[in-house]
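Ticket #4471: structure export looks truncated?
Reporter: QA, pipeline team
Priority: medium

Steps to reproduce: submit the single chain below to the structure queue and open the exported record.
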Amino acid sequence: MFVPKAGSKIQIQSYKHSGTIHRVWEETTLLKGNRTVAIGANDRTLVTESDGRTWITREPAICYFHADHWFNIIGMLREDGVYYYCNLSSPFAWDDQILKYIDYDLDIKVFPDMTFNILDEDEYELHSKQMNYPMEIDYILKKNMNDLIRWIRERKGPFAPDFIDNWYERYLTYRS
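Actual output as written to the record:
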């Protein structure tokens, strides 16, 4: 299995359970990558939605993906602190210079004080029916939602103090 090396530019592709493309982040700098973990960073990167609309991210972000967890975590560095956007998703996979995963709709937004909101439960219910999510997927996602909430409360992984800042400092060494 090919894994891009640290410092290389990768693309991130999000899919839906049906196999259709959901969203593409055009360029992310890989800070750490192996078969188990991928940590990347981007700032003002082009994002393309499934309907062709595009937008540019507003702030630096550190992206955390793990092959053993059904979620990924984006830490966005804003003036008033780090905000997190967590996607319930399949574990990631490498396809050459592209990191791919399946987005399963459910999200958690975490604020700098570590309070959080669960988002898009209605979208999950709708897509679950439309795309016939298997019961096993529902079970896995609910278990991983609980794991993710535990990580937030315990300040584990990307929620640990200084995790995002330390990886952002590393990202700055790759910027030209």
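Status: closed, not a bug. The export was complete when the record was re-opened. Leaving a note from the reviewer for reference: The radius of gyration is 16 Å.
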